[in-house]
Amino acid sequence: MTFDHPSFGRITDDRVFIFDTTLRDGEQSPGFSMNLEEKLRMAAALADLGVDVIEAGFPVASKGDFQSVAEIARVVKGSVVCALARSGGKNDIQAAGDAIRHAERGRIHNFISTSPLHMKYKLRMEPETVLEIITTGNKAARNLTDDVEWSAEDGSRTEPDFLCRCVEAAIKAGATTINIPDTVGYATPEDMERIFSMLKERVPGADQVIFSAHNHNDLGLGVANTLASLRGGARQIECTINGIGERAGNAALEEIVMAIRTRHDQYPYTNRIETTKLLKLSKMLSTTTGFDVQPNKAIVGRNAFAHESGIHQDGVLKNAATYEIMTPESVGWSKTSLVLGKHSGRAAFRDKLAALGYTISDEKMNEAFQRFKDLADSKKVVYDEDIIALVDDEVRDHARIRFLSLDVVAGSQRPAEATLVLEIDGEAVETTANGNGPVDAAFNAIRSAFPHDARLALFSVGAVTEGTDAQARTTVRLEEEGKMVDGQGADADTVVSAVRSYIHALNKLLVKRTRSEPEELVVG
Asked: Do the domain assignments include residue 314?
């Protein structure tokens, strides 16, 4: 297969394009909202990683989404910047075209549902109407850009004959990339391989477009289905950092890329990803959203290259390949974990932050360094995990409300009392409140300083490392009118950690209040 693509030039059959939708599909996850500065930082890091296409958002959804896509389109170089639109949505395609107008390379990604279930109950349209919308939508998009992608939402549950007709219509109307999503994570690897093989064999013009796979992880098959899609002929992979996304998430970029690299005998394809930067991107996303990956997460989990079994340790010491199918360094891990102490200076601290994937302003660097010195005074050993936890609070940009100080009086003979000082929209606000324990008193003080109706839906506490001197890592989930956000905080004092996590969640909720969603469900 060789043909010319408007964004990528001559296409060969061994080339796989990486389409990252962390900023669009990933951000639809409950609690994962990002503001403009955070999206710009992530987009720049994705381009540096070597991602071919960055799906920056859904411009018609809100003014904030439009602004995010437009700003990313202006500043990102080296990657195609993609905007999502409904094929038949009023103003969708024009908004997408306007948002990517200044991109070095821009793409409009339009979609409509094609499965019998979706057409009957969601769209309430007849198949022929859907075909007409596919044609008009792709023609409209092609009038605004040469790079057009079309998706068959719920494609994996679409009747084969009708799916072929839809794909043929999209190609004739100007689509240059055809995406078949497993929107609800229902398919098996055999299903996905069969679908792409069928389309390439049956649809006229299939040899002149890139086929794309977008697999959700509801049955834990997102990555397996994506690799099977490659066998069937897909050459674009739609995925997210850390596998974030709707419900159980999307296929994880880092897992797919490393599967291709590690098992090149089975998947003889090339891509542009700089794999040594994968861990950095994973940590950046976790810091931005406040969601850590689970310890046993493939590639980027902290246990991915850890060995506790004596038999495994013995094998690794003799030859790492006995139990490691890739090197930790190949994805960005460092062999050392124990690093800094109370005598470490600012330069060493900055170097460690860079090694851990953080780039922060001088102001935030000063605050993070002071917190590190305070922590080092109270702990004998400061681990990488400790540094990551304390720096997380400083690099977040949800900053209408900031923690300044907290004093708590508590005991078994009296109600707890918390005196809290917050910076709210640039002004210091002090308040005192009582509660049934120190955390309850501190949370009541936050509500007094910044009144709100959000409900506390979850509060959990864990330790960053081992020992009684470990930092506490807390998570707070707030819910308001169906909107749900999670916040995280860390501190050697558990109550301070709890306050930091509540404030993080509250700031994210304030960002989310400004967002709106279009009536039709977004493609996944």
From this structure: yes
Residue range(s) defining the domain that contains residue 349? 336-395
**Domain-terminating residue out of 225, 258, 289:** 289
Query: Residue 189: what pLDDT?
Result: 98
Number of domains in the chain: 4
Give the global pTM. 0.81
Residue type at 441 in one-letter notation: A
Could you tell me which of 523, 522, 520 has the C-alpha nearest to residue 212?
523
SS3 81: strand
* pLDDT at 462 (0 to 100): 78
Contact between 249 and 29 under an 8 Å Cβ cutoff? The reply is yes
366 in helix, strand or coil?
A: helix
Assess whether 101 and 201 both reside in one domain. yes
* DSSP assigned state of 29: S
390 shares its domain with 462: no
Letter string b/e over residues 444-458, b meaning 16 or more CB atoms within 10 A of that residue's CB = bbbbebbeeebeeee
Could you tell me if 80 and 162 lie in one domain?
yes
Model pLDDT for residues 6-47, shown as the tens digit of each residue = 999 999 999 999 999 999 998 877 767 788 888 999 999 999
- CB environment 393-420: b (16+ within 10 A), e (fewer): bbbbbbeebbbeebebebeeeeebbbbb
Q: Identity (one letter) of the amino acid at 38?
A: E
Taking 70 as the pLDDT cut, the residues of the chain under it are: 1, 31, 307-314, 316-317, 335-340, 357, 379-381, 383, 385, 389, 392-398, 514-524
Residues 6+ apart with CB under 8 A from 257: 18, 271, 273, 275, 278
Residue whose pair of structure tokens reads 């819910």 in the numeric block: 479
